[in-house]
Write a structure and sequence with these properties.
Among the domains are: about 30 residues; about 170 residues, 2-enoyl-CoA Hydratase, Chain A, domain 1. The N and C termini lie far apart (about 75 Å). The protein is an alpha/beta fold. Strand 4, helix 4 and strand 5 form a beta-alpha-beta unit. The strands form two sheets. Strands 1, 2, 4, 5, 6, 8, 9 and 10 form an eight-stranded mixed sheet that branches. A three-stranded antiparallel sheet has the order 3-11-7. It is built from eleven helices and eleven strands. The longest helix has 29 residues.
Length: about 300
């Protein structure tokens, strides 16, 4: 082999090595640890705060689901709930993992796992809480302001041109008519019944029993355990230990978590993305017209 060819081969091997290391670091940066290099682990997937969007959670869950080094999942919930659509989407992602995968899926609720947070939790194989966890709050709420009187006082005429009687239902400029209220009550009632059905089917409880609990009230973790809404009372480390035992990893399994998002100098130099800018501008216009939203949220 000539000197030039040998140098070319060495350069190509070095380049492949760099790409390989880059791929490993990319996975490590995204997932938070190289569990696939370190043997079996328990993935702890957090669901925190008010639920308004499912994308970040489902992306994280899918990433761990595709990692063969993950042998069990613990969904760590600290949430009072949020929008109906996002809560249902997260529930479906957890339920699909439970039904389509042999690996254990456990949900654990900390200070609060109520309404949409509890809705998401019942998608797991089993649900655990602390004795003082605030949970339950099985119900639906819809709220929006009626600024008709305010506009009248300040001399603002809010003109609306609608294609049908109920098209501007829930708008700021007028109060609900009896027909409007009937429509919204039916809508809320239907979504409430969906919540009851999900709890009944996934907690193996009679539907009438769940319906009797689904009046929006909050339960402590201990009360929820007595009512069959959770499977037991334990701390997060105990839940991780249980997941490890179920996965054959022993009582002290290694744990992998998603890397917490950070803002670095390049983010600041690069400025806001278009999506971030739109969100920021939107937050400065709280009185812009918007549709009423359905919420699974503790109040």
């Amino acid at each position: 082999m000539t000197y030039d060819k040998r140098n070319t081969v060495i350069a190509l091997l070095a380049l492949l090595g760099i790409f390989g290391v880059g791929a490993i670091l990319s996975i490590w940066w995204t997932v938070g640890n190289t569990s696939f290099l370190a043997g079996g682990r328990v993935a702890v997937v957090p669901l925190r705060g008010v639920i308004t969007d499912e994308a970040a959670f489902t992306k994280t869950l899918d990433g761990f689901r595709e990692d063969p080094g993950v042998r069990a999942f613990v969904i760590e919930i600290e949430s009072p709930g949020g929008t109906v659509g996002a809560s249902q989407s997260i529930f479906e992602a957890i339920r699909a993992l439970r039904d389509d995968d042999e690996r254990p899926v456990l949900a654990w609720m900390g200070d609060v796992g109520a309404s949409g947070g509890y809705y998401a939790a019942v998608g797991a194989d089993s649900v655990y809480a602390l004795p003082g966890t605030m949970t339950g709050s099985i119900g639906v709420i819809m709220e929006f302001p009626n600024a008709e009187e305010l506009f009248r006082k300040v001399g603002v005429d809010w003109e609306v041109v609608a294609s049908a009687e109920h098209k501007d239902l829930g708008g700021y400029a007028r109060a609900l008519s009896p027909g409007d209220r009937e429509i919204l009550e039916e809508l809320v009632g239907d979504v409430h019944e969906q919540f009851v059905e999900v709890v009944s089917e996934n907690r193996n409880l009679d539907r009438e029993t769940v319906r009797g609990l689904a009046d929006g009230r909050v339960f402590t973790g201990r009360q929820a355990n007595q009512l069959g809404l959770v499977d037991g009372l334990m701390t997060l480390p105990e839940t991780i230990e249980l997941a490890g035992r179920m996965a054959g990893l022993g009582a002290d399994p290694r744990v992998v978590r998603p890397r917490e998002p950070t803002v670095n100098l390049f983010d600041l130099i690069g400025g806001l993305s278009l999506g971030d800018a739109r969100s920021w501008i939107g937050s400065l216009a709280p009185l812009r017209p918007s549709a009423p939203r359905l919420l699974f949220e503790l109040r």
